[in-house]
Amino acid sequence: MGKRVTLADVARRAGLSPAAASMILNGRPDTRLSKDAHERVHAAAAELGYRPNMSARALRTDTSHTVGFVSDLVATTRFASGLIKGALGAAEAAGQVVLVAETGGEPEREAEAVSALLDRQVDGIIFASMRARETFVPRLPTGLRTVMLNATNELHRCSVLPDEETGGRRAVELLLDAGIRDGILLLGYDAEAERDLFRSATVAARVRGISAAMADAGARFLHEESIWLWEPAPGYEFTARLLAQGMRPRAIVCLNDRLAFGALQALGDAGLRVPDDVSLVSFDNDELAAYLRPGLTTIGLPHEDMGRRAVELLLTPDGPPEGQHLVEMPVVIRDSIRRP
Amino acid sequence: MGKRVTLADVARRAGLSPAAASMILNGRPDTRLSKDAHERVHAAAAELGYRPNMSARALRTDTSHTVGFVSDLVATTRFASGLIKGALGAAEAAGQVVLVAETGGEPEREAEAVSALLDRQVDGIIFASMRARETFVPRLPTGLRTVMLNATNELHRCSVLPDEETGGRRAVELLLDAGIRDGILLLGYDAEAERDLFRSATVAARVRGISAAMADAGARFLHEESIWLWEPAPGYEFTARLLAQGMRPRAIVCLNDRLAFGALQALGDAGLRVPDDVSLVSFDNDELAAYLRPGLTTIGLPHEDMGRRAVELLLTPDGPPEGQHLVEMPVVIRDSIRRP
DNA sequence: AACCTGTGCTGAAAGGATTTAGCAGCATCA
DNA sequence: TGATGCTGCTAAATCCTTTCAGCACAGGTT
């Protein structure tokens, strides 16, 4: 029953050919169809509630108004879903729809996912990564639009990344603005980490920004503690140990919120109050950061903005512009830095 | 360059008509094509790396091997992305691909999203909800397959829900198994909450299971504390107040992990140790639950299983079977319940 | 009168798969 | 010998949209 309305139905009702109706509905510029014809077609389309059949259109034009989103991980972190959410929003705004695939980072699944998307004639593919910065991408037909999201690739040069360097600067600046220049402890930087595929580029840039801001202020860290695993437990242990050694920092920069969580507990156990005795600033704006008391002031990862940006770049009329597109990291002020 | 391989190419190479090739590749049962023809076609397809054009197929058959996933919220909780992840996995296993749309729960966006999916001839739509149990669904063409995920709807009778009642029982049973029958405190139940659209059904079933298990064991709660906002701060405050009043529970059942987080802090501040002095069990298996020390023993929400299940139901050959399909909640044992 | 030039529109093909109807050849049967 | 049935395959229509080539007519030139 109730078959879908086709272009032919619209054309018939407007007393025109499907060809004319098609041109009019697509707003072809150079056509010579009368004003009257335009009105009749639009009226007919509206009255019948016509919606074009995307499969037919895709078959003919090889564009589906659909973008592919291939991610190594989807559910593990809020980061991943933030990227997707941003992408969905931008796609919706552009009248597109998003095909999502998860690959676990396995090249075979990735190749299969890409094939499945190409079978459906997606207009472009976003490759998002949660774990590796330089990311594997299967061979693709030339001319396919691609954007690397939180990732880079030799062959696919348009990528969207958080502006970690500026973010790093901001963290330090927050402390400086609070009048803290000395006695700052850095928690989490690991020279080894730079060689790690996962966070190498991220961490390097973040630390670069931190160092630059310190240097600009003519300040030096009281101590830099390398920590491999950025989780609450090590954060707790290292902080507790330093405190036990008699170190009395005025502030701690933690390279992520989970370390900060641990540090916060250790400070509490040592009878030190945040932010009165010690200020704390960290990175990521983890869900955690809002739960803690005091709430963590943190430099957030701009998940949604990045996802949004990726779609916008993908749909740029002339194709995605090459280059690293840096997205500003939000400064989330809570209560872990003392008021000046 | 390098145009895609079409069915006609395969047929030509196999020395047959496209019709024959189509039947063979689709494994039509009643056809009378020779064994030899079968082999030639499959060989040709493999050699050329043929992949069918889904748009063409969809145009002809009105099936796209694509499922729609319409969700009110995508990024807010791990719950949402877990549902998606599960759906993606099951879809991949079934050779399908997933079109995701987010609506914010707004009927207009929802209607638009559904239209966009129907334009692409999806084989069915999953309606997922994070916030409302009885969920709005726009009018749909008859015959479209639908599954409600973490939601219910009058007209669309196939839904997937967590088995909260059994989950509630499990929580209590964990305490009973640890030899704790008395001095149990219930934190979070709110009679008012039952009337709240969001978690009404969930909470009601959860509490029903808890009560049933207690009754079965002939046990009664030491105290039941209603808390409206299930966040760490209220968890802390209510627990601290009860302790200050001199209450000394042997165990606390928290209706979610965030409350438990607060309770844990309050217990610590009062000098009580978990699990030695007080055992703690809660719900949701929030990210938080693993971070805390001790790790929270919790009854998890089976996000991924639910997402997976929804796709499986959607693709059931005879259409999604009506009814409430309950998914078992996992018991996540950590260290917040004392060993017996 | 023949020739252009615009104007406003249409016919038909194309895109790639599926599916129905049916053709040719051969064997069987009466 | 003609009818019948089976086997193995193909021609052509169909799904719906887009797009190229071009038709018919009006009005203006030469």
From TrEMBL, chains A, B:
Keywords carried by this UniProt record: DNA-binding, Repressor, Transcription, Transcription regulation
Annotated Pfam families: LacI, Peripla_BP_3
Span of domain HTH lacI-type: 5-61
InterPro entries the UniProt entry points to: HTH_LacI, LacI/GalR-like_sensor, Lambda_DNA-bd_dom_sf, Peripla_BP_I
Domain of life, source organism: Bacteria
Entry GO MF terms: DNA binding
Name of this chain's protein: LacI family DNA-binding transcriptional regulator
Lineage of the organism: Bacteria, Bacillati, Actinomycetota, Actinomycetes, Micrococcales
